[in-house]
């Protein structure tokens, strides 16, 4: 990463699924037009939501009636990858949006760079994290973070989630993993493959986010400033017309 | 005539799910999964170039078509390859195999 360009840190926000995904795209567009600096944001989902990868089928991946019953939103991402349950209080979500020339050209190499920084941030607070290609971070061999990347108009967007203290039972009830898999036995086996930050550190989410932010910046200067009015306007437009629309959610 | 769904987890990679509706030709094809493709919209071009082709198309011919779209769009799969995808599509349409 560069050390001379000043990055923008957006203030922590709690939003609907559509606003969260629209914000990423609005910022990407403004970075592409050089109207916004490279940006890092941390945010929360309220209510909890399921996001599906760009190429995934809504019907195949999501138990939509269970989502309705539990008041859980569904959104399609602009990035590929798998379906994710974003537990409102149970995860840390970040996005990094920057000119792609600040990172290795290859997709795999840039995952290594950015996820490597993220893992370093966790290591700095005593969590034994490591990057696992293609796009995961593991702690003691168990998955704790999934990440996804897209590139558009010369800008790289990587967003990802780090499990803090997720509700695993709800996660498997809203994601279509097969009925037999929602048994206690399956949840136990999921616990053997997936881990969470509360099992590895006593630090609150705010401190963990600060550690990750510091590592992602990798010495580059930064300033906390909010979205511009133009970005906010674009966010609302994209949330209404794209990410909040059934046409987009059910695109594939 | 019929429709078929085939899924495959690529070892050390991602999941591909292919749904085809076919007669003597591929009438509809939908490629889903948790893979990555940059730029993402190229998936529609891949589906389009495989629609209407005879179901007798071979796996290498499918791959040639996919590779041509990837090259024309400077597109790149991550987590799966065009060979992986061609194999799943071939399996879906060669239902007597």
From TrEMBL, chain A:
Signal peptide (UniProt feature, chain positions): none
Protein name, as recorded: Lipoate--protein ligase family protein
PROSITE patterns: BPL_LPL_CATALYTIC (PS51733)
Molecular function (Gene Ontology), one example: ligase activity
The keyword DNA repair appears for this protein: no
Stored Pfam families: LplA-B_cat
BPL/LPL catalytic domain span: 34-220
Protein origin, superkingdom: Archaea
Species whose genome carries this gene: Candidatus Iainarchaeum sp
Lineage of the species this protein comes from: Archaea, Candidatus Iainarchaeota, Candidatus Iainarchaeia, Candidatus Iainarchaeales, Candidatus Iainarchaeaceae
InterPro entries reported for this sequence: aa-tRNA-synth_II/BPL/LPL, BPL_LPL_catalytic, Octanoyltrans_LipM/LipL
SUPFAM superfamilies assigned to the protein according to its UniProt record, in alphabetical order: Class II aaRS and biotin synthetases (SSF55681)
Keywords assigned: Ligase
TrEMBL record, chain B:
Domain of life assignment: Archaea
Protein name: Lipoate--protein ligase
Lineage: Archaea, Candidatus Iainarchaeota, Candidatus Iainarchaeia, Candidatus Iainarchaeales, Candidatus Iainarchaeaceae
């Amino acid at each position: 990463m560069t050390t001379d360009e000043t990055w923008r840190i957006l203030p922590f926000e709690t939003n609907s699924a559509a606003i969260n995904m629209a914000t990423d795209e609005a910022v990407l567009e403004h970075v592409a037009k050089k109207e916004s600096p490279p940006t890092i944001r941390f945010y929360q989902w309220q209510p909890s939501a399921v996001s599906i990868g760009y190429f995934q089928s809504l019907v195949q991946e999501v138990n939509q009636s269970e989502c309705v019953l539990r008041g859980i939103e569904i959104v399609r991402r602009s990035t590929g990858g798998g379906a994710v349950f974003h537990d409102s209080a149970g995860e840390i979500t970040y996005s990094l949006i920057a000119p792609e020339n600040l990172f290795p050209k290859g997709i795999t190499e840039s995952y290594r760079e950015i996820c490597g920084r993220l893992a370093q941030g966790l290591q700095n607070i005593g969590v034994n994290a490591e990057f696992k290609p293609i796009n995961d971070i593991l702690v003691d061999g168990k998955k704790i973070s999934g990440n996804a990347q897209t590139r558009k108009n010369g800008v790289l967007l990587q967003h990802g989630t780090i499990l803090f203290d997720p509700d695993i039972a709800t996660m498997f009830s809203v994601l279509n993993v097969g009925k037999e898999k929602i048994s206690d036995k399956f949840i136990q086996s999921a616990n053997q493959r997936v881990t969470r930050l509360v099992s590895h550190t006593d630090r609150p989410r705010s401190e963990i986010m600060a550690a990750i932010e510091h590592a992602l910046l990798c010495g580059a200067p930064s300033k906390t400033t909010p979205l511009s009015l133009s970005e906010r306007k674009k966010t609302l437009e994209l949330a209404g017309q794209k990410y909040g629309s059934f046409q987009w959610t059910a695109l594939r | 005539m019929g429709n078929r769904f085939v899924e495959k987890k690529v070892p050390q990679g991602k999941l591909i799910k292919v749904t085809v509706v076919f007669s003597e030709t591929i009438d509809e094809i939908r490629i889903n999964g948790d893979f990555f493709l940059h730029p993402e919209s190229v998936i529609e071009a891949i589906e389009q170039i495989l629609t209407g082709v005879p179901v007798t198309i071979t796996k290498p011919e499918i791959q040639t078509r996919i590779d041509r779209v990837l090259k024309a769009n400077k597109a790149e799969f991550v987590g799966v390859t065009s060979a992986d995808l061609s194999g799943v599509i071939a399996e879906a349409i060669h239902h007597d195999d």
